[in-house]
Amino acid sequence: MNKDKKVTLIAKTLRYMRLSRGVSQDKVAKHLGLSKASIGHFEHGRVDLTSERIETFLGLYKYSNGEFQEFLNGKQIPVLDLKYECLMLLEKIDDTKLRTVHAVLLGFVS
Predict the structure, then answer these.
(1) pLDDT at site 85
(2) DSSP string, 64-104
(3) CA gap 48, 87 in Å, rounded
(4) What is the distance between the terminal CA atoms of the chain, rounded to a whole angstrom?
(5) Predicted pLDDT at 5
(6) Domain spanning 1-76 has what CATH number?
(7) Residues ≥6 apart with Cβ < 8 Å to 72
(8) 3-class secondary structure, 3
(9) Which residues, 6 or more positions from 77, have their beta carbon under 8 angstroms from its beta carbon?
(10) pLDDT tier at 23 (50, 70, 90 boundaries)?
(11) Which helix (H) or strand (E) holds 29?
(12) Is the pLDDT of residue 71 over 90?
């Protein structure tokens, strides 16, 4: 397992596919005999995904390999969870820029 987070396009696509079908991490984990944490590790790039594991997820989420490949080839992944997407972006911003973002956000909630 890799301690560093590196959300790959593959991981991001699989997470989108799971969420788009309304399937919880817990349900996937139970179906595959894994822990919920394992599913999270796959979706956050902490664990490498084998092609067999990807096929298993695609079958469970009822997506074809062709649909999966479309996303890998550049099809835009729709945003289903805006807060999550924003948090993922915030993790990539250095502290100097994050201070600016913080000030902007405060302006929206004040």
Answers:
(1) 85
(2) -HHHHHHHHTTPPPPPS-HHHHHHHHHTTS-HHHHHHHHHH
(3) 22
(4) 42
(5) 57
(6) 1.10.260.40
(7) 9, 10, 13
(8) coil
(9) 12, 13, 16, 71
(10) very high
(11) helix 25-32
(12) yes
Mean pLDDT value across residues 45-65: 95
Question: What's the rounded Cα separation, in Å, for the pair 92 and 33?
Answer: 32
Looking at the chain, how many residues does it have? 110
Place of tokens 């009822």: 62
Query: Can you give the pLDDT at residue 110?
Result: 74
Q: How far is CA 78 from CA 3, 15, 20, 30, 58, in A?
A: 27, 11, 9, 26, 17
Q: Token pair 């298993």 is at which residue?
A: 56
- What tokens were used for 102? 């913080």
* Structure letter (DSSP) for residue 4: S
pLDDT of 61 > 70? The answer is yes
Domain boundaries, the chain: 1-76, 79-110
The pLDDT of residue 33 is above 70: yes
